[in-house]
Amino acid sequence: MPESFGEALSRLMIERKMGVRALAREVPCDASHLSKIRLGRKGTSERTARRLDEILGANGSLSALRPKPPYRIPGGTVDRSPTPDPGDDDMKRRAALQIITALAAGSTIPPRALETMLSGIQDVLGNPLDLDEWEAAVHEYGQQLSTRPADALINDLTTDLVGIGDLLKRHLDTADAPGLFRISAGLSGLLAIKLGYVGNQRAARLSWATAKHSADASGDQALRVWVRGRAAQEAFWAQRPGEVVAKLASEAIEIAHGTPSAGLARAHSARAFAAADQQDARQAHLSLDQLREVVDRLREPEGMLASSPMGFREYQFHWAESYAQSRIGASKAVATISHTRSLYPSTSVVARANLSLMGSAVLVRTREVDSGLDEAVTTLRSQLEAKAGHLPWARRLGQNVWEALPLQARMLPAARDLRELTTAT
User: Fold this and answer.
1) Which candidate, 389, 420, 413, places its Cα nearest to that of 198?
2) Phi–psi pair at 413, nearest 5 degrees
3) How much is the average pLDDT of 81-108?
4) Helix segments in 344-407, DSSP class H
């Protein structure tokens, strides 16, 4: 009897000494979903089959075993009924016209327009739901978070969230619902982060609320922790009330039950940031120790997750440590910031710029006012002009430099420039 796709996948994983979780991280996809594929309980998309083939070095032999879905073509029309629906055809024509008009004008395609136009084909194919494709899209968006223009990324995330909402209406009572809620949480969280980048805090709050509810509905513990941990960090940098930051971080830590994850690391980071800002050195050091413990038990993200905001890396611990030390006036702050800068590649322009702003605050505190001010103004101005990275983070770091200035130094021209940059909208 010929080997099935799942059997070949299992054999190759054994031969390559690769476990389900490690392979899922490389694809990337959900480990439980991959396990079902391996056991023959679930099919897979052509794209995922090719990716598995590539990772396992099967030279096309694995993807060739992927069973083709049994598409059933209704006779006579793209509508599933034997009689075409004129209203449905009109709606598809209107959607096509919207797309053509938007492309001609160089504007964004309206949400649902593309899906409506393609719905006839999807009907013919039986409306297949491919969670693998959606999971891969979430991770791809994560990689684009700091590099893609805000308007384009926000438009695509919003459009996909509309699509996921439509899918949830159709699949709410099926086994696919938890997976769709996972995707909704991921997309909503990424949208919230990007909205925060551009300073739209009201929209970011609404998106975080959707991400939290979707994560809870998915039942995925790690995702529930990540949404709250990342939201706690973003709330801190957006200068929301301290109790909001504390509540989100505490919820993340409680849900985690000690299980290490990127979300738990972010929750402890948020606590360290908040404590350092309140000059509570004891709590800041305690939170950093707890963060260190989590990071030591985490595996370094691999594959697509390596550049995803859903992971947490060693150098991010040192970034948090640098911030806390720069705020509480630790004697080793300069050395810590310098070491952390060396961990980031030269291409990590935003992270390195933010570390420079931390260094500027330390220089000002040690009475090297002119040097600290010059570096802060130059760094902050270049970030704001380029609209690079997370602008609320940059502004808050600039405010920290301002607050460290002696009163008499606040009348200096460079100090006035800094104040203007940190308050600009």
Assistant:
1) 389
2) -55, -40
3) 52
4) 349-365, 369-386, 391-404
Residue 3, pLDDT score: 83
pTM above 0.85, yes or no: no
Structural domain harbouring 383: 329-425
Tens digits of residue pLDDT in 331-363: 899 999 999 999 988 878 888 899 999 999 999
52-83 b/e (C-beta count within 10 Å ≥ 16 → b): bbebbebeeebbebbeeeeeeeeeebbbeeee
Residue 24 inside a domain? The answer is yes
Helices (H), 19-149: 20-26, 31-38, 46-56, 86-105, 113-124, 131-144
d(CA 304, CA 54): 14
Rounded Cα gap, residues 94 and 98, in angstroms: 6
- The tally of domains found in the chain comes to 2
- Per-residue pLDDT reduced to its tens digit, 237-289: 988 999 999 999 999 999 999 999 999 999 999 999 999 999 999 999 999 99
Q: What is the pLDDT of residue 311?
A: 83
Q: Please check whether residue 317 lies inside any domain of the structure.
A: no
Is residue 85 pLDDT above 50, yes or no? no
Q: Which of 65, 93, 116 is the last residue of a domain?
A: 65
Residue pair 79/85 in contact (Cβ under 8 Å)? The answer is yes
Whether the Cβ atoms of residue 136 and residue 28 lie closer than 8 Å to each other:
yes
- C-alpha span between 72 and 74 (Å, rounded): 6
Helix axes 391-404, 221-237, angle to 10 degrees: 50
What CATH number is associated with residue 35? 1.10.260.40
Q: Which range (37-46, 208-217, 281-290, 304-313) has the least confidence? A: 304-313
Q: Is 354 inside any structural domain?
A: yes
The type of residue at 232 is: A
Residue whose token pair is 């130059």: 378
Check if the beta carbon of residue 24 is closer than 8 Å to that of residue 31. Answer: yes
Is 394 among the domain residues?
yes
